[in-house]
Amino acid sequence: MSEHTSLLSGEKKDDDNGSLRRRSFGSFSRFGPDVETSGVKPSGDSISNIPLVLEDWHRRSMSAQADEAGKTLSPHHKKGQSTGQLGLTQRNRARSFVQNIDGTMVSMTPVEMGRHELYEEVPFLAMSGLQRKEHSLSVAFSSYAAQLDTLETDEYMAATTGKHLNPEEKERRLSQMSLLLLDELEVDAITVTTPLIFAVLIASMLMFNMGYNISVMNAPEPFVFPGHSTSAWSMAVAAFCVGGPLGAVLAGQWADQRGRRGALMITTWLFIFGGFVQALAPSLNIVIVGRAIIGVASGASTVLVPIYLGELAPPSLRGVMGTMTQFALVIGILVADLVGFVLANPTGWRYMFFLTSAMAFFQLLLTPFLLESPRWLLGRNANSNKARFIIKKLRGFRYDEEVETEVEHYLGASKSQSRNDSNDNSGGSSAKNPMLEMFQDKKVRLLVISTLVMQVASQFSGINAVFYYSGLFFDGVIENPLVGTTLMGAINVLATYVALLLMDKCGRRTLIMWSSAGMFVSCIVIVVSLNGYFSDMVALGAVASYVCFFEIGLGPIPWLIVAEMFEGKYVAPAMSISCQLNWACNFFVGLFFPYINKSLGAYSFGPFAIVLLLTFMFAWIYLPETQGTTPAELQAEMVKKNAGRSYHNMDIEGMASHAPPSQDEWEQALALLKQLGDDDSDEAAGV
């Protein structure tokens, strides 16, 4: 094998950074060793549109796309079909590579390039609603790479036959190659390993416990130290929100110092301890202390769980993981309501509080299956063998080459999404403060302000007044207030599922406007009903619609704006300030709603209606559409970002030939070696 053949096939690498050394590559091509090629460069003229077949695919629902996964062209079954039609019968197994603007080269298959793009663009956060961004990126890169493949094939045909591909041939190859690559990129979305399942299960239990403690104070209120004052009980409820922001701050330090796994363990022990304090409390003041400890654990969970699962899961699964944890949260709220039917009595309320510790202890039993975040390990030591072992288990890899490729994805994405991006440095000075830079950057400022306004609106809409004090609200409206509370919990779970479907199809600004408008109308109906103009059942229905409208917009969208629209270096500071503001507003609602209800009576939802009206007006006038860029826009960004690069051997159809050898191939190779050895022995015996 010649020197540049070995280099460009990825078998010889630079000692310093693993990149391919610059060599002459004019005589090395996937079309054969005698074909001259200078590679292809992306440009707005050559890569200008998304193939129609991908536009149709993109418009399908996420469930329909999952059903179709694996049914498109497969490199293992369709090899040679399209290229055979184009006359490309002699093809060399040359690995694709990219020549950067500085002359360095990196060897990756098209699907590896696509996964690297996903790692860089999708934040390391498990966030409900991210599925659309993940899929749009996959569609955009599939189209981008397929057009590079088609351009290179067209150049080859022109050089060897004197004829370019006709429009029909170009369209056919472009459609086939883009679907084939999209199929490969989305394999991660339907491939889940057992270690990843355990990670999701254990992390989701933290969110379940948080949801349980959001609503656990509702049912037993009349039985917990009877005779307590309104101020004492409101403080017991609001103490949860006092610990929340503290936990959110401490979680970042724990995660950096002790690792993601260590931080999750600390949070689990806090749930255990806080539950015991509440269950064994001799007075309401001690209940307040226990409630604050659980608040710390809950605040830490809101930070740690999205980060931990986001760093374990591949980019195409982070939205799904976020959805699962969101369901765990709302199911926890519902379970607290259901448990109240059995334990909300003078002798059982302590057991309600003790269940927090019991659930956390069960989670503790599962922690041997809890893996450390490979991103955290690689951040401390890029050569970490432990990180590589974990990646191999999480992804189900069989070969070291696959593991090393995944490591490069992690390292490249971490560098790209780092807060202290090298572009922020000026003349060797230290990097700017990302928090200040967000407000100084005019392009980001409106998004920051919108995010903060949405966080305030999310809590001051009054949703947690329902979950904290629904028993107080339904008293007199329905015979058994706990029935109304449980009904709201069940509707909350169903509304979360509906929200998932709507976020797949509707713009974020549209959902915010529908959410705030629907909640506003619901508040008006509640107030009118409580004043006797409508029946109590109408009031109950209005509260149900109020919860539903919250879940489709003001619940998830404020967090999704950060994950979808902010640059990687801004995601962490934007999430931090959003989290603190959300907990602060949550505290005020929990503390003051009993006084509002006592003072305003039937008009207690009036202040929330005013906030919702202002939210609608802000969204209508100022809020930008934050659904995320379309595949066509993402592809245009890829063209701009990679304009200085030259792509060689973008052979999508033949990319499977560069996978590590299968067991059958190993057996065939060993059989051949044995046969050659036997032949040599026979020759020696004959001699």
Summarize the structure.
By secondary structure, this protein is mostly helical.
Provide structural commentary.
The chain has 26 helices and 3 strands. By secondary structure, the chain is an all-alpha fold. A 3-stranded antiparallel sheet has the order 2-1-3, with no helix packed on it.
Radius of gyration: 29 Å
Report, as a whole number of angstroms, the end-to-end distance. Answer: 31 Å
Tally the helices: what do you get? 26
| Total E-strand runs | 3
Percent helix range: 55-70%
Q: Are there runs of 5+ residues with pLDDT below 50, and where?
A: 1-28, 61-93, 419-431
Average pLDDT number: 79
- Structural class by SSE content: mainly alpha
Strand order of the largest sheet: 2-1-3
**Strand residue content:** under 5%
Sheet with most strands = 3 strands, antiparallel
Order of helices and strands: HHHHEEHHHHHHHHHHHHHHHHHHHHHEH
Quick one: overall form? globular
List the helices and strands and how they pair.
Blueprint lengths: L2 H6 L43 H7 L3 H7 L12 H5 L11 E3 L5 E3 L2 H12 L9 H31 L5 H19 L8 H22 L14 H50 L4 H29 L5 H26 L5 H17 L8 H7 L4 H11 L4 H17 L17 H7 L1 H19 L2 H12 L6 H23 L4 H23 L5 H17 L4 H9 L2 H33 L5 H16 L9 H11 L4 E3 L14 H24 L1
Antiparallel strand pairs: 1-2, 1-3
Helix pairs in contact: 5-6, 5-15, 6-7, 6-25, 8-9, 8-10, 8-11, 8-12, 9-10, 9-12, 9-23, 10-11, 11-12, 11-19, 13-14, 13-15, 14-15, 17-22, 17-23, 17-24, 18-19, 18-23, 19-21, 20-21, 20-24
